[in-house]
Amino acid sequence: MENSRCPARCIKKPRNRIAVLMIATGPECIAYIPPLLESLRLYFPPHDPYVFTDRDEPLKATKIYHPHTGWPEVTLRRFHAALSQKKTLLKYDYVMFLDTDMLACSPMVVEELFGEGTTSVVHPCYPDCFERRPESEACVVGNPTYYQGCLAGGSTSAFIKMCEAITKGIDKDKENGITAVWFEESHMNKYLSENPPIRSLSPSYAFPILRCLVRPETWLGTTNPETYVPKIRHLHKTWKK
Asked: Model confidence over 105-132: pLDDT tens digits?
Protein backbone atom coordinates (compact mmCIF):
# COMPACT_ATOMS: atom_id res chain seq x y z
CA MET A 1 0.00 0.00 0.00
CA GLU A 2 1.38 3.41 -0.96
CA ASN A 3 2.47 5.59 1.91
CA SER A 4 0.06 8.53 1.96
CA ARG A 5 2.11 10.58 4.39
CA CYS A 6 3.27 13.95 3.13
CA PRO A 7 7.08 14.28 2.96
CA ALA A 8 8.61 16.46 5.67
CA ARG A 9 9.33 19.18 3.14
CA CYS A 10 5.60 19.47 2.43
CA ILE A 11 4.67 20.13 6.05
CA LYS A 12 4.24 23.83 6.67
CA LYS A 13 5.65 25.20 9.89
CA PRO A 14 2.93 26.91 11.98
CA ARG A 15 3.04 30.69 11.67
CA ASN A 16 4.37 32.51 14.72
CA ARG A 17 1.51 34.31 16.43
CA ILE A 18 2.32 37.87 17.50
CA ALA A 19 0.29 40.33 19.58
CA VAL A 20 1.12 44.04 19.34
CA LEU A 21 -0.10 46.22 22.21
CA MET A 22 -0.64 49.99 22.28
CA ILE A 23 -2.23 52.42 24.75
CA ALA A 24 -4.15 55.43 23.42
CA THR A 25 -6.37 57.25 25.88
CA GLY A 26 -7.66 60.79 25.80
CA PRO A 27 -8.47 62.85 22.68
CA GLU A 28 -4.89 63.36 21.44
CA CYS A 29 -3.19 59.95 21.44
CA ILE A 30 -5.88 58.16 19.45
CA ALA A 31 -4.92 60.16 16.33
CA TYR A 32 -1.58 58.33 16.20
CA ILE A 33 -3.12 54.88 16.07
CA PRO A 34 -4.47 54.60 12.47
CA PRO A 35 -1.14 55.52 10.81
CA LEU A 36 0.76 53.32 13.26
CA LEU A 37 -1.53 50.38 12.53
CA GLU A 38 -1.12 50.86 8.79
CA SER A 39 2.67 51.10 9.06
CA LEU A 40 2.77 47.92 11.11
CA ARG A 41 0.58 46.18 8.53
CA LEU A 42 3.08 47.12 5.83
CA TYR A 43 6.39 46.50 7.60
CA PHE A 44 5.91 44.42 10.74
CA PRO A 45 5.57 40.61 10.71
CA PRO A 46 1.92 39.38 10.62
CA HIS A 47 0.31 40.17 13.96
CA ASP A 48 -2.88 40.94 15.86
CA PRO A 49 -3.05 44.55 17.11
CA TYR A 50 -4.64 45.43 20.46
CA VAL A 51 -5.35 49.00 21.56
CA PHE A 52 -6.07 49.94 25.18
CA THR A 53 -8.33 52.97 24.87
CA ASP A 54 -11.27 54.91 26.26
CA ARG A 55 -12.21 56.29 22.83
CA ASP A 56 -15.11 55.34 20.56
CA GLU A 57 -13.33 55.83 17.24
CA PRO A 58 -13.41 52.72 15.03
CA LEU A 59 -10.01 51.10 14.63
CA LYS A 60 -8.64 48.19 12.63
CA ALA A 61 -7.62 46.51 15.88
CA THR A 62 -9.12 44.83 18.92
CA LYS A 63 -10.04 47.54 21.40
CA ILE A 64 -9.73 46.99 25.15
CA TYR A 65 -11.33 49.56 27.41
CA HIS A 66 -8.75 51.44 29.44
CA PRO A 67 -9.52 54.61 31.43
CA HIS A 68 -7.75 57.89 30.78
CA THR A 69 -5.78 58.29 34.01
CA GLY A 70 -3.55 61.19 32.97
CA TRP A 71 0.20 61.60 33.28
CA PRO A 72 2.25 59.86 34.61
CA GLU A 73 -0.19 57.15 35.70
CA VAL A 74 -1.01 56.17 32.11
CA THR A 75 2.60 55.28 31.37
CA LEU A 76 3.50 54.08 34.88
CA ARG A 77 0.85 51.36 34.71
CA ARG A 78 1.26 50.18 31.13
CA PHE A 79 2.66 46.84 32.23
CA HIS A 80 -0.30 46.47 34.58
CA ALA A 81 -2.53 46.92 31.54
CA ALA A 82 -0.65 44.21 29.65
CA LEU A 83 -0.98 41.79 32.57
CA SER A 84 -4.74 42.39 32.67
CA GLN A 85 -4.84 40.52 29.34
CA LYS A 86 -2.56 37.67 30.40
CA LYS A 87 -5.06 34.98 29.43
CA THR A 88 -5.36 36.39 25.91
CA LEU A 89 -1.62 36.93 25.50
CA LEU A 90 -0.86 33.31 26.39
CA LYS A 91 -2.46 32.35 23.05
CA TYR A 92 0.46 34.05 21.28
CA ASP A 93 4.10 33.13 20.75
CA TYR A 94 5.38 36.71 20.98
CA VAL A 95 4.25 40.08 22.31
CA MET A 96 5.38 43.61 21.47
CA PHE A 97 4.36 46.79 23.33
CA LEU A 98 4.83 50.05 21.39
CA ASP A 99 4.35 53.73 22.14
CA THR A 100 1.60 55.29 20.05
CA ASP A 101 3.86 58.00 18.55
CA MET A 102 5.86 55.49 16.53
CA LEU A 103 5.79 54.57 12.86
CA ALA A 104 7.25 51.46 11.24
CA CYS A 105 9.16 52.42 8.10
CA SER A 106 11.22 49.42 6.94
CA PRO A 107 10.46 45.69 6.58
CA MET A 108 11.09 43.59 9.70
CA VAL A 109 11.10 39.82 10.22
CA VAL A 110 10.35 37.70 13.27
CA GLU A 111 13.96 36.59 13.76
CA GLU A 112 15.34 40.11 14.17
CA LEU A 113 12.66 41.11 16.67
CA PHE A 114 12.10 38.04 18.80
CA GLY A 115 13.84 35.15 20.48
CA GLU A 116 13.34 33.03 23.58
CA GLY A 117 13.58 35.96 25.94
CA THR A 118 12.77 39.67 26.08
CA THR A 119 13.25 42.34 23.41
CA SER A 120 14.28 45.94 24.12
CA VAL A 121 15.69 48.92 22.24
CA VAL A 122 18.88 50.75 23.22
CA HIS A 123 18.21 54.40 24.08
CA PRO A 124 19.90 56.47 21.35
CA CYS A 125 20.96 59.47 23.40
CA TYR A 126 20.98 58.94 27.12
CA PRO A 127 23.06 55.97 28.28
CA ASP A 128 22.60 56.71 31.99
CA CYS A 129 19.12 57.67 33.14
CA PHE A 130 18.84 54.95 35.75
CA GLU A 131 17.03 55.36 39.02
CA ARG A 132 19.85 55.60 41.56
CA ARG A 133 17.95 56.15 44.81
CA PRO A 134 18.35 53.01 46.93
CA GLU A 135 14.92 53.48 48.47
CA SER A 136 13.30 52.75 45.09
CA GLU A 137 12.72 49.21 43.84
CA ALA A 138 13.99 50.48 40.47
CA CYS A 139 17.47 51.37 41.79
CA VAL A 140 20.29 50.22 39.50
CA VAL A 141 23.92 49.95 40.58
CA GLY A 142 26.61 50.04 37.93
CA ASN A 143 26.39 50.97 34.27
CA PRO A 144 24.59 48.36 32.18
CA THR A 145 22.96 49.20 28.84
CA TYR A 146 20.09 51.68 29.17
CA TYR A 147 16.93 50.79 27.25
CA GLN A 148 14.07 53.03 26.15
CA GLY A 149 10.57 52.24 27.33
CA CYS A 150 8.90 52.94 23.98
CA LEU A 151 9.35 49.32 22.89
CA ALA A 152 9.17 46.22 25.05
CA GLY A 153 8.42 42.66 24.10
CA GLY A 154 9.69 39.18 23.61
CA SER A 155 8.46 35.62 23.82
CA THR A 156 5.14 35.62 25.64
CA SER A 157 6.41 33.76 28.70
CA ALA A 158 9.45 36.06 29.04
CA PHE A 159 7.35 39.19 28.49
CA ILE A 160 4.81 38.20 31.12
CA LYS A 161 7.58 37.37 33.59
CA MET A 162 9.05 40.84 33.02
CA CYS A 163 5.63 42.48 33.40
CA GLU A 164 5.08 40.71 36.72
CA ALA A 165 8.45 41.85 38.08
CA ILE A 166 7.95 45.44 36.91
CA THR A 167 4.43 45.78 38.30
CA LYS A 168 5.56 44.31 41.62
CA GLY A 169 8.31 46.92 41.87
CA ILE A 170 5.99 49.77 40.92
CA ASP A 171 3.37 48.67 43.46
CA LYS A 172 6.02 48.39 46.19
CA ASP A 173 7.31 51.89 45.39
CA LYS A 174 3.76 53.22 45.56
CA GLU A 175 3.32 51.67 49.01
CA ASN A 176 6.46 53.52 50.08
CA GLY A 177 5.43 56.83 48.50
CA ILE A 178 8.09 56.72 45.78
CA THR A 179 7.84 57.26 42.03
CA ALA A 180 10.86 56.18 40.00
CA VAL A 181 12.60 58.93 38.07
CA TRP A 182 11.49 57.65 34.65
CA PHE A 183 8.40 55.80 35.82
CA GLU A 184 7.95 52.29 34.35
CA GLU A 185 11.04 52.74 32.16
CA SER A 186 13.16 52.86 35.32
CA HIS A 187 11.63 49.63 36.60
CA MET A 188 12.07 48.01 33.19
CA ASN A 189 15.76 48.92 33.21
CA LYS A 190 16.12 47.50 36.70
CA TYR A 191 14.73 44.20 35.44
CA LEU A 192 16.86 44.22 32.28
CA SER A 193 20.01 45.02 34.26
CA GLU A 194 19.52 41.68 36.00
CA ASN A 195 17.92 39.84 33.07
CA PRO A 196 19.47 41.16 29.81
CA PRO A 197 17.22 40.99 26.73
CA ILE A 198 17.77 38.25 24.18
CA ARG A 199 17.16 40.85 21.44
CA SER A 200 18.91 44.15 22.14
CA LEU A 201 17.72 46.31 19.26
CA SER A 202 19.73 49.27 17.97
CA PRO A 203 18.34 52.84 17.98
CA SER A 204 17.17 52.13 14.43
CA TYR A 205 14.02 50.83 16.14
CA ALA A 206 13.41 54.10 18.04
CA PHE A 207 14.70 56.58 15.47
CA PRO A 208 14.29 60.23 16.56
CA ILE A 209 13.87 63.34 14.45
CA LEU A 210 17.51 64.07 13.65
CA ARG A 211 17.09 67.79 12.99
CA CYS A 212 15.82 68.16 16.57
CA LEU A 213 18.86 66.57 18.18
CA VAL A 214 20.59 69.42 20.02
CA ARG A 215 23.53 67.15 20.85
CA PRO A 216 23.91 64.61 18.03
CA GLU A 217 27.18 63.45 19.56
CA THR A 218 25.14 61.76 22.28
CA TRP A 219 23.79 59.35 19.67
CA LEU A 220 25.67 56.39 21.12
CA GLY A 221 28.86 58.42 21.03
CA THR A 222 28.87 59.02 17.29
CA THR A 223 28.65 62.31 15.37
CA ASN A 224 27.10 60.53 12.39
CA PRO A 225 23.65 59.29 13.40
CA GLU A 226 22.76 58.94 9.72
CA THR A 227 24.69 55.65 9.76
CA TYR A 228 21.60 54.10 11.36
CA VAL A 229 18.84 53.06 8.97
CA PRO A 230 15.44 53.72 10.58
CA LYS A 231 13.22 50.70 11.12
CA ILE A 232 10.73 52.37 13.47
CA ARG A 233 10.56 56.15 13.81
CA HIS A 234 9.75 57.79 17.12
CA LEU A 235 7.87 60.80 15.84
CA HIS A 236 7.88 63.16 18.81
CA LYS A 237 10.93 62.23 20.82
CA THR A 238 13.62 64.86 20.33
CA TRP A 239 15.67 64.29 23.52
CA LYS A 240 16.70 67.93 23.81
CA LYS A 241 19.11 68.68 26.60
From this structure: 999 999 999 999 999 999 887 778 999 9
Q: Taking CA 56 as the corner, what is the angle to CA 95 and CA 232, rounded to the nearest 5 degrees? A: 35
Alpha-carbon Rg for the chain in angstroms: 19
- CA neighbor of 131 nearest in space, from 180, 192, 166, 79: 180
Please, are residues 188 and 166 in contact by the beta-carbon 8 Å criterion? yes
Domain range list for the chain: 14-205
β partners of residue 27 = none
Buried b (16+ CB within 10 A) or exposed e, 221-239: eeeebeebebbbbbbebeb
Its pTM surpasses 0.90: no
β strands within the chain, DSSP E: 18-24, 48-53, 62-65, 94-98, 102-104, 118-122, 147-155, 199-201, 232-234
Are the beta carbons of 167 and 80 closer than 8 angstroms? yes
**Dihedral pair phi/psi, residue 41, rounded to 5°:** -60, -35
Architecture of domain 14-205: Alpha-Beta Complex (3.90)
Mean pLDDT across the chain: 87
Angle at 215 between CA 213 and CA 219, to 5 degrees: 80
CA-CA distances (angstroms) from residue 75 to 22, 85, 167, 227? 11, 17, 12, 31
Q: Is the pLDDT of residue 217 over 80?
A: no
**How many other CB atoms are there within 10 angstroms of residue 98's CB atom?**
24
Distance CA 200, CA 177 (A): 32
